[in-house]
Write a structure and sequence with these properties.
Elements (H helix, E strand, L loop, with lengths): L2 H10 L3 H9 L2 H11 L3 H17 L10 H18 L5 H4 L6 H11 L2 H8 L2 H11 L5 H8 L3 H19 L5 H5 L1
Helix pairs in contact: 1-2, 3-4, 4-5, 5-10, 8-11, 9-10, 9-11, 10-11
Length: 180
């Protein structure tokens, strides 16, 4: 039995320490992932906390046929979607006090970021598939399981996403062409 399955069994038996160690392994990756899906870092942290609470609450329903990380990311996706549905306001929605120099610098930096472009160009499911595959290094089958899609859908949409991003980043007049 793997160490992870041992921790899962201990957590199911009531060990808070085992659960804490188990989810601690995924905390950083989940937060990075949720930051891309939420309106603000604070919202991502809230969604992460909800994910951990739900994981603890529903740990008995975890099926060891699937990777634990796949199960956690599925919960995280649902929490981020619930947050958007419930209309949680991001920091920018709470108070508009005019241009913020720091925000302007961050925006300028983000324009060059591949993931910002991906977020703009791709739909949510395809963006999530790209993130899970290339940032979280999940297998095609794990990505498909998290998104509740087929492996074929995942492969085809990852290929289409790469082509769409290539076209967007290499379009005439873009900075990548000027430096190409």
């Amino acid at each position: 039995m793997s160490e992870e399955l041992t921790l899962i069994d201990s957590a199911k038996a009531g060990s808070v320490g085992a659960f804490t160690e188990l989810v601690g392994r995924y905390r950083g990756g989940l937060l990075r992932f949720l930051i891309t899906r939420c309106a603000s870092v604070a919202d991502a942290e809230d969604a992460l906390q909800d994910t951990m609470i739900n994981a603890y609450r529903y740990l008995a329903s975890y099926d060891p046929r699937w990777r634990f990380s796949t199960w956690l990311y599925r919960i995280a996706i649902r929490n981020a979607a619930k947050q958007r549905r419930d209309g949680f306001a991001g920091i920018d929605d709470v108070a508009d006090q005019g241009p913020d120099p720091l925000a302007m610098c961050i925006d300028a930096s983000e324009r060059e970021n591949l993931w910002v472009t991906a977020k703009r160009v791709l739909n949510d499911d395809v963006y999530t598939a790209m993130w899970l595959r290339y940032v979280e290094d999940m297998s095609i089958n794990d990505v498909a399981a998290v998104l509740e899609r087929s492996g074929s859908w995942t492969k085809v949409n990852l290929m289409r996403a790469r082509k769409a991003l290539d076209a967007e980043l290499n379009a005439p007049g873009t900075q990548s062409e000027a430096y190409g």
